[in-house]
Every structure is written in structure tokens, then in C-alpha cells.
Amino acid sequence: xxxxxxxxxxxxxxxxxxxxxxxxxxxxxxxxxxxxxxxxxxxxxxxxxxxxxxxxxxxxxxxxxxxxxxxxxxxxxxxxxxxxxxxxxxxxxxxxxxxxxxxxxxxxxxxxxxxxxxxxxxxxxxxxxxxxxxxxxxxxxxxxxxxxxxxxxxxxxxxxxxxxxxxxxxxxxxxxxxxxxxxxxxxxxxxxxxxxxxxxxxxxxxxxxx
Length: 210
Fold this sequence. Notes:
Shape: globular
CATH architecture: 4-Layer Sandwich
Number of strands: 14
Radius of gyration: 16 Å
Largest sheet: 6 strands, mixed
Strand content: 25-35%
CATH superfamily: Ribonuclease Z/Hydroxyacylglutathione hydrolase-like
């Protein structure tokens, strides 16, 4: 699998392209940067975006999705539950799979930061949006957020993944841009919480110390 990373947007956002390598079929994860930032990579590698994957519908992650959808009208916009906001939407649910060339993308619904948050697992790569970052988790201070939901999503669906899984987050907030799950657990006090109540306490402490 090949992965290309693009940084920009409103707050050190990260947009990703990935493909199986031989096939031109490509997925784009989050539309945080203008299409012009991706276009030369798409053209030079003969890529054909067929899926536009949305980790969640916060504006900084969908800012350029209209532009992407117009440029690639055959590409499916894959978003949890569907919204009706974009043409050619494919509503996603937990446990769904998406084909991109020879790759199989597993959909993990991970509510907490938002109710429509999802992570996309492809081989040993986890595109985690704002569910989990390098060194910490997403925040739960906005309307629709839920700290306890976030804990359950992370503990039940992400921390059980193989420790060599590489996290590709939605923002470049850490000392490195990507990290293995094992290294991230060792780095983050939030990911070391012993149970749900402990996680809530640690999240409260984190917010107070910001």
C-alpha cells in the first residue's frame, strides 16, 4: 500500500491519499486541503480517486469536499450514516468494508469526539481523524461530544488492534506525524487510563491544564 500525506487546512490538518500501488484506484481521507495540493501527486502517479472517505463532518475536515466531489464525480463520498449534503454519498455503518483496488477498508464507528466519527483501517494503517492523535485523544467539549462514548470506542475498537498498527491522525499535533499504537499508548496518559471513570478524570485534568 502507498500513502501520501498533505498538511494544511485550518489547524495543521492532515489529508491522505492511499492506493494498493499497482491499481490507479485511490481513496482520499478527509478534504482538509485544496485539491490543488493533491493534484500533482494524483497526476504524476496516474491515480484515480474512487472513494472520498470522511472521518467526521467537522468543517475543517470537509472544507474542500465539494471541490473534490466535483472533480471526481464518480467517486463515492463515504460518511457515517450519510448526510445528503454531497452527491454520490455512501452511508457508512460500523463494520462496513470498502474496496479500493485490491485493498479492503474496514469502517470503525468511533463516536465521542462527534457522533459521526469513524476510523478507517487498511492493512496496518489506521486513519483516525479526530478520535485519536499522536500523544492523546480527540477532545469532547463541543455539542454532541461524549467523553464516556469516546473511551468505549477507543478501548473496545482501537486499543484491541495489533500494537504495530500505525496511526495516521487528522491533525499534526504531536512530536511526530504518525505513530504505532504501541508507541502511542506508551506516550499518552489518556491511553493509559485503567477504566472509564479514570479516563474521564484524565480528560478533565487535560482540559484544565490546556
